[in-house]
Design a protein that fits this description.
- The chain is α+β, with helices and mostly antiparallel strands.
- The chain has one domain.
- 27% of the residues lie in helices and 30% in strands.
- The chain has one helix and three strands.
- A three-stranded antiparallel β-sheet has the order 1-2-3, covered by helices on one side.
- The longest helix has 16 residues.
- The two termini are 16 Å apart.
- InterPro entries: AP2/ERF_dom_sf (IPR036955), DNA-bd_dom_sf (IPR016177).
- This is AP2/ERF domain-containing protein.
Length: 60
């Protein structure tokens, strides 16, 4: 998936949050779903990847 020009994480749906935290979200059926705020960027990326499997793979 392409990332935006301002994306600092390198992963679509993962962005910097307040302080040193990272937020994960995913868009599905026109809505933004918050996947949580994490202390570690890698945990946020894992949450996003898991959500992609849960939300997108059943559609294919």
């Amino acid at each position: 998936m392409p990332k935006g020009k301002r994306n600092k994480s390198g992963v679509k749906g993962v962005c910097k949050h307040r302080g040193n935290k990272w937020r994960a979200n995913i868009g599905f059926k026109g809505k933004q779903i918050n996947l949580g705020v994490y202390d570690d960027k890698e945990d946020s990326i894992k949450a996003r990847k898991q959500a992609e499997k849960e939300y997108y793979e059943p559609i294919k």
